[in-house]
Specification:
279 residues; alpha+beta; 60s Ribosomal Protein L30, Chain: A; 2 domains; 6-stranded antiparallel beta sheet; 4-stranded mixed beta sheet; 10 strands; 32% helix; 32% strand
Length: 279
Amino acid sequence: MRRLILSVVCLAVIALAAPAWAQEDEPNSKDHPMFSRFPGYYISGYDAQDFGAFEFNVGDSTQKVEGRYWSIEYQLKENAKKGGPIEIGRNYINMLTKRGGVKLVDDLSAGGGSISGRMPAGGKNIWVQVQVSNGGELYTLYVVEEAAMEQKVEFTAMELAKALNESGSVAIHGILFDTGKATIKPESAAAIAPIGEVLKSTPALKIEIQGHTDNVGTPAANLKLSQDRAAAVKVYIVSTFGIAADRMTTAGLGDTKPVGDNKTEAGRAENRRVELVKK
């Protein structure tokens, strides 16, 4: 009998504790650095990625935005005062507009809906969308800070040789430079190494190193910058791998050969590249 009573008491304690525990923020979750939560809510779902994408409502269509990504789901705590969908959503977007941003879509009602906005910050855009459901008991905050993906996977020497033989040219995005300069960043070593290895293992191979830029700046400045960057890559390969200088020519094409949309950060990143052309 005593054991039965003890079991009942333990179950009662667990039952009482469960709601409180369930209303704690999800482990390893946190609010976005720029946006606090609406009072009375806890984080019930969380996803943060260094590079992700989301389709933001922009009117009659959506726009896919890539960059640093957050999805934070908030749920109303037990006995807390519920925020209305319009109140919750506009709190976030009003904060953007007060800082120079724009409201893109407001499709909120008493039952729920979504609202989105965009704000310029540090030369890029921060996109926000709030989706509210169940009359305000649950809402999800989506945030994407526009950014180009950091290239972490590079050609191996074998893959580079194959691509040059099959197509005659290869674009290398992992060769990085200081902004507005021809100074090669140290983290570019992994992208340049296969070029040196291919030239070493194929003595008859000759290439042209072409520099390309995005369209930020004047065409004349971009042309000069692309020429200088191509020349810097050649100097690096000669000094690091001992390749004869006469096996490589250089050319700068500035912003004249875009492969991405210069209106977006991701597109501009695609355009900032070094191309190798087999001669």
